[in-house]
Each structure stands twice: as C-alpha cells, then as structure tokens.
Amino acid sequence: MRKLIAGNWKMNGLVSSQAEIEALKGLTGSATCDIVVCPPFTLLDRAVERVKGSSLTIGAQDCHAQQSGAHTGDISAEMLADIGAHYVILGHSERRVAHGEDDAMVLEKAVAAHQAGLISIVCVGETRHERDEGRAIKVVDKQLRASVPEGATGQTLVIAYEPVWAIGTGLVPTNEQIEEMHAAIRQVLQERLGSDGHSVRILYGGSVKASNAEALFRLRNVDGALVGGASLKASEFAAVTLAAQTS
Ligand code: PEP
C-alpha cells in the first residue's frame, strides 16, 4: 500500500512559516509516498497555492459537520474543498478533550468531509489509564465502530491510531502493541467496510520523528504516520517522509 505521511502543525505557524512548506517541496522531491501538510486555517489558502505543481498536498485540522449557516468561527468541509484542500484531520484527541468532540460528532464530520470530496483522517486512541486497565483495543474498537461512515473506502478514509499518552511525550508503544492495535483496526475496517476495509490506510501517530520512523514503517499494517511536533521543521519532516520511501 502507498504510504501516507501527514504533518499536523496544530496551532503553530505564521505567514513566515510558509518557508517550511517551500523548503519541503525541495526536500521531498518526487515522493513515492503521499505527503500532506495540515497547517492552521489561516495558512491553508496560501499553502494550497504554494504546493501547486509539487507532490505535496494540503489538509485542514478540523471541519464543521454542516455545510453552511450560523456557526460562528467554524469552517465547513465544503469551504476547505473550495480552496483546494485535500484532507481533513477529524477527532484528534486534543479536539476530543478541549472541545468535547465525541464519536458521533466525528462521524457527522466525516460524512460531511466525504460529501465535499475530502479525505478524512479519523483519529482514534486510548489514554494511558485505559491501556493500563487492559482496555486499549476495546476503546479503539468502540471509537472506530461509532465514527467510521458507512460506504467509506480507501479513497475517502484514513485512520490514525494515536495513543493519547504518546502524543507529544516522546513515548512510543512497543512494536508488538502497535502491530496488535493496527491488526485489530484492520479487522474492524473489514467488518464495517468489507473488501474496502483492506485499502484504508492506517497511520501510526505519537512522537514519530526521523530517528524512529523507519522502524515504525516496517511494522505490519502501519501505512504511514500522523506527525505533530516533527512536522514543524521541513528537514525533520522530510526525513520522516524519506523513511517511508525507503522502508
Ligand atoms: C499529533 O498531535 O497528531 C501527534 C502525533 O503529535 P506528536 O507527533 O508531536 O506526538
């Protein structure tokens, strides 16, 4: 499966940060994996313009479930597609915690994203407490069943497994834990989506960086990565994408 490397800039980046996207264009060359950068809303339009003619694509970090209307401060999937964004991250744990997003909301947003022609990157993952209690697989199974839209395919949906305790902490699950979880996710996708479940890419996310990326990409059912902190510097992010191309 062609790997996907997605960079999540979170609430980082000013107009001057476009230099990182410009540098990335040169560093990633004609990539043999898909690469998407997800800057904040304020930079999306400029970023789309900047990557034209390159192998990079642009995504957003969230969208509203409605197409338009009285939703002050929100951005719809249609608006994102309209400016040329290709992807949208949905249900990131930071949004689940800070904005009270639950699986039902993530499902609505994913449906809206797919209707608008965007590819959704739906994030799932357990907390440290849930893993310590031996409930990690059960928690992720429930999140997936409640947030993956009927009829999704590998062309419309990407899953990112992001253990909450591994995000921004430098901690990474063991290879066995990642392979076990990704196999469980693959099984749910096949149950939910039939043969289309085979083609949905399952990314690993949580403290991915240049030094650990190659080993992660060799694991079974790891079809790429969702990268936070290490996506902010073009050279580091480019090294992660290079690891995807060589592993
Ligand atoms: C993320 O926020 O999606 C993430 C994986 O962050 P980091 O790579 O910094 O752990």
Automatic annotation (TrEMBL):
It comes from the Bacteria. InterPro entries: Aldolase_TIM, TIM_sf, TrioseP_Isoase_bac/euk, Triosephosphate_isomerase, Triosephosphate_isomerase_AS. One of its GO terms (biological process) is gluconeogenesis. Pathway: Carbohydrate biosynthesis; gluconeogenesis; Carbohydrate degradation; glycolysis; D-glyceraldehyde 3-phosphate from glycerone phosphate: step 1/1; Carbohydrate metabolism; erythritol degradation. Substrate binds at N8, W9, K10, G168, S207, G228, G229. It catalyses: D-glyceraldehyde 3-phosphate = dihydroxyacetone phosphate; L-erythrulose 1-phosphate = D-erythrulose 4-phosphate. Transmembrane segments: none annotated. Its main location: cytoplasm. SUPFAM superfamilies: Triosephosphate isomerase (TIM) (SSF51351). Involved in the gluconeogenesis. Catalyzes stereospecifically the conversion of dihydroxyacetone phosphate (DHAP) to D-glyceraldehyde-3-phosphate (G3P). This is Triosephosphate isomerase. It comes from Rhizobium leguminosarum bv. trifolii WSM597.
